[in-house]
């Protein structure tokens, strides 16, 4: 309990000291200085609202190109054993390493509990409570988090939903304004052969895998044209 209070106090101090100036880079730098191992390309999207357990920093390993969103909590210990102490008088402890692999996305307000190992190429849905061993190339969600599909199944499902999602976006915006169109279709821009090239390039860059994306679109045609959705000549 005391350690959890300390983590929240650190969060309040970070907010007071850094305010909106706390960036992913400065947060990662401070975590590394504490002893956390973090790979290249990893990002905290909202570091002011992340809690990373620094009681045992050398027990936390975060791989390359990990995306950690707002409100995510990562723990390498818990204090539940204090209840056992109150009944049996035995201090049994509760500290275990956490390993997060490469190319992982952790959704908003998820909690990664002590002893968790997350494989490579894993998506974790928002609000999940994660523990145990999570297989590589998989999608997990829920409380407790369970595997809901493989990464390949996720890719196929999302790809198949694109057209319907694009139509729904266009139905809710001002289609007379091209700037607004591409603002809302930004994440789909690589699918359009007539999207602004700079926008598609930025999306590829944001993915963290620009070169891989470039190679993909060199050999695979873009699926859509904007006028096909808007009956434009």
Description:
- With 233 residues, this protein is of the alpha/beta class.
- It has 2 domains: 2-150, Hexapeptide repeat proteins (UDP N-Acetylglucosamine Acyltransferase, domain 1, 3 Solenoid), CATH 2.160.10.10; 173-230, no CATH class.
- It is 38% helix and 17% strand.
- It has 8 helices and 15 strands.
- The strands form 3 sheets. It has a 6-stranded mixed sheet with strand order 2-5-8-11-14-15. A 5-stranded parallel sheet has the order 1-4-7-10-13, with helices on one face. The protein has a 4-stranded parallel sheet with strand order 3-6-9-12.
- A hairpin with a 4-residue loop joins strand 14 (138-141) and strand 15 (146-150).
Task: Provide a quick synopsis of the model.
By secondary structure, the protein is an alpha/beta fold. The protein is built from eight helices and 15 strands. The protein has a six-stranded mixed sheet.
């Amino acid at each position: 309990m005391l350690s959890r209070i300390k983590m929240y106090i650190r969060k309040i101090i970070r907010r007071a000291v850094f305010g909106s100036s706390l960036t992913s880079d400065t947060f990662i730098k401070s975590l590394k200085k504490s002893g956390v191992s973090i790979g290249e390309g990893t990002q905290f999207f909202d570091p002011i609202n992340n809690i990373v357990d620094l009681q045992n920093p050398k027990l936390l390993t975060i791989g390359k190109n990990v995306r950690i969103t707002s409100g995510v909590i990562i723990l390498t210990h818990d204090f539940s054993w204090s209840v056992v102490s109150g009944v049996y008088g035995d201090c049994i402890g509760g500290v275990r390493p956490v390993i997060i692999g490469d190319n992982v996305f952790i959704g908003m307000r998820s909690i990664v509990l002590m002893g968790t190992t997350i494989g490579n190429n894993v998506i974790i849905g928002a609000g999940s409570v994660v523990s145990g061993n999570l297989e590589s190339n998989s999608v997990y969600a829920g409380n407790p988090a369970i595997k809901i599909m493989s990464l390949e199944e996720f890719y196929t499902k999302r790809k198949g939903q694109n057209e319907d999602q694009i139509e729904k976006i266009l139905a809710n915006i001002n289609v007379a304004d091209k700037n607004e169109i591409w603002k809302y279709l930004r994440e789909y821009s690589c699918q359009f052969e007539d999207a602004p090239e700079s926008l598609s390039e930025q999306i590829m860059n944001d993915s963290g895998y620009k070169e891989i994306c470039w190679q993909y679109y060199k050999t695979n045609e873009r699926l859509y044209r904007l006028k096909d959705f808007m009956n434009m000549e």
